[in-house]
Amino acid sequence: MINDSVVLADADGRPCGTADREAVHGVDTPLHFAFSCHLVDADNRILMTRRALSKRSWPGVWTNSFCGHPRPGEAVVDAVHRYAQRELGIDVDEVRCVLPDFRYRAVDASGIVENEICPVFVARPLGSLEPNPDEVAEYAWADVPDVWDLVSRTPWAVSPWFADQVRQMPGPDPHGLAADPAVVVTHPTTVRVSNS
User: Which residue positions form the known binding site for Mn(2+)?
Assistant: First the structure.
């Protein structure tokens, strides 16, 4: 059976245990490791997704391309590739970390808390999307400057973590896709935790 646990973190951002991924999010969600990824195509369009209505937290909310959690001992970049397949049915390339130290806490209307150390990645999509309906209700490709303008004018229209990420990234090309492709940061490289 696959270990679908998340790695918990202490206040200093150090791994300190694990929890079941399905059970970890509630009204008192402990700090844990995650990631966000923004897919940007060759035309400088970003993939926006609307969370499935069946999602426990922020159902139906528009957000970044996809998010997820590295498993214990899994490299975060490997988790990015795994979730690209799981949520969108595609492979990704040119994976880069653009906000290695992003961290946030947010509470949705039902009281469910997100509390994550969440490095932010950008990647190129490979192939055609086949979104998992349990994860994605809708999706849209939009010009990056238009999305950044939307967030600056109406931050309440998107997930709070996406709005915070946009505020922390420079614009109008926040993804640095013209940067040297050899510079790939994968922080934290692997989330390791003792099973004791």
Answer: 25, 32, 69, 114, 116
Report which of 103, 133, 136 is spatially closest to residue 120, judged by C-alpha positions: 103
Selecting among 37, 67, 97, 118, the annotated active-site residue is 67
Protein fold of 5-168: Nucleoside Triphosphate Pyrophosphohydrolase (3.90.79)
pLDDT tens-digit map of 173-190: 544 433 333 333 333 444
Phi/psi of residue 150, each to 5°? -55, -45
Write b or e for each residue in 97-107: b if 16 or more Cβ atoms lie within 10 A of its Cβ, otherwise e.
bbbeebbbebe
By percentage, how much of the chain surpasses pLDDT 90? Answer: 74
Q: What is the pLDDT of residues 119-138, one digit of tens each?
A: 999 999 999 999 999 999 99
**Active-site entry in 16, 37, 94, 116:** 116
Residue 136's pLDDT is what?
97
- Whether residue 116 lies in the annotated active site: yes
Alpha-carbon separation of residue 165 from 103, 120, 122, 128 (angstroms): 9, 8, 12, 26
74 is catalytic: no
Length reported for the chain: 196
